[in-house]
Amino acid sequence: MKPTNQQKLILDYDGNSVVIAAPGSGKTFVLSQKIKQNLKLLLDHQGIIAISYTNKASNELKSRSLSNGEKPKSSFFGTIDKFNLSEIIIPFAKHLFGIPANEFKIIKNSSLSNEEKEHFEWLDRKITLEELDEEIINIIKEYFLKGLILIETIGVFADYVFTNSIACQKYIKSKYKFIYIDEYQDSGYQQHQIFLKILNLNITATAVGDLNQSIYAFSGKDSKFLLELTENDSFKYFKLDKNHRCHPSIINYSNYLLNPKTELIPVDNNQILFIRTDGNEISIANWIDKYIETIQNTFNVKKLNQIAILTRGNRTGQIIDENLNSKHRLFVSNALDINLNIWSAIFSNLLYFVFDRGHKFIDVIEVFSSYEKFSSKELKKLKLYKQNLESIAIQEPINKEALKTEFIKIAKVISPNTSSQESIELLQSVLSNEIELNSYQSAEEDEINIMTLHKSKGLEFDVVIHLDLYEWILPKKKPGPNNDFNNPIYDNWTQDVNLHYVGITRAKNGCILISSTKRTNYEYKQKQGKDSEFIWDNNIKELRHK
Ligand SMILES: Nc1ncnc2c1ncn2[C@@H]1O[C@H](COP(=O)(O)OP(=O)(O)OP(=O)(O)O)[C@@H](O)[C@H]1O
């Protein structure tokens, strides 16, 4: 693929840059090309930091950056939490606080007793480093010495360690020469602070994002930090605004959704349409079954896994999963994947290795340690365990107990000091849940994907079938005070427009928006289904197929 002029400008610039990128404009392509260029300049003990929003996005960026057999050298690919833990807190907090008595356990505030929760009331205040008083630092220290780190404190804890440990700063400065953060619109305050501090170490920084794809405000993320960087003199500001993915009519529709004054591209036909079925979500599943071949023919879909059904929440996904006859695969999240224990990350990657042919064993090994660090005896063991896994994987049905045993043996070699009973229990829970387990496998060529809009971020399909377009659901709203249905309150209109925008812009050739006359609410009661405001506002129907 040849870079466009816009992309080339970014690839050739060797200072700090902030890139505002439209959907499908090739930001993953540009990032991976830049990382390839950097890796050539680095010595083996040096690396780049590449922060992505999810493990999945990180694996994708890593594999694209190393697609020609490039060596990652000492690079870090992963999420901000993982970076803060493995590069800052775990190696350097002990210099400030002392050696913990137990192995590390990453816990959630919600898992604490009420009495313990009182120690962390300050978390609600979205505390900054400057506001950390001695009392709070002592609480963090006390938990750390017991081997406990609260997920919610990781950002501010890492900021504290980084700022107070010269050794940590020296380590980061000598090891890393470049830092990349993708999806910067979904950065939290703490991530932004760490990024700016790393920049001050003279590490070349690149931030990439799309203000209109900000969809995680509900968990404290804010696109204003990306906007701030565009106004920061230390950064050169680039735009990537050409969408290479979507049919022009889909580009028009998505841009109009954000701003009805948008300039439209002349098009012959609109490849985005709206359907309302008679009945609840089951009638939608029936409609899809009936028209799937027509959809394939109309939009030139060669394989069914190039079609995705996107939902706002898990409930709709489950109903479609249970009622769709066409072959399909439902993707759900699970607690193991988001757990921050090192063993959880190892197990999660091992599940991908066993169930998804695209995954390599080396990706598992390099989660927290580089390949070169293992002795030849350890490498021999790993090779044997890998072969064991491969032979378990081809048995039908898979022996899950044997799988678990091998996983634990591998984790013991990769990260012997972080053994975690919690990770083993989470693994056990995934292994006994068919739907969760199935989510590790990519859709087969003859399977339609079903997933949430949030999960679809960063992906692309020939056709998107976008569900949950109901009033009250998308955009989400609730009745006003005293249950006043005439004066409803929107949860967050802009974030919901963005979510709709993310869904639509996953589509290359066709986008089908669907509502139905009835819908199933959170108590599984049948409600009248009214179309979402997004379907009719600003006369947007003119941009759909008639
Ligand atoms: N220079 C180019 N020439 C042709 N096609 C390109 C070019 N750059 C990117 N593309 C194509 O555009 C599509 C989108 O690219 P990519 O996945 O890198 O976009 P993105 O900006 O990360 O998207 P999003 O933010 O929507 O997830 C891909 O199919 C990619 O192959």
TrEMBL record:
GO BP term, example: recombinational repair
Keyword line = ATP-binding, Helicase, Hydrolase, Isomerase, Nucleotide-binding
Q: Which PROSITE patterns match?
A: UVRD_HELICASE_ATP_BIND
Where does the UvrD-like helicase ATP-binding domain lie? Answer: 1-247
Give the reactions, separated by semicolons, that this protein catalyses: Couples ATP hydrolysis with the unwinding of duplex DNA by translocating in the 3'-5' direction; ATP + H2O = ADP + phosphate + H(+)
One Pfam family recorded for the sequence: UvrD_C
Residues bound to ATP are 21-28
Top EC category: isomerase
From the Swiss-Prot or TrEMBL record, give the protein name: DNA 3'-5' helicase
Question: What is this organism's lineage?
Answer: Bacteria, Pseudomonadati, Bacteroidota, Flavobacteriia, Flavobacteriales
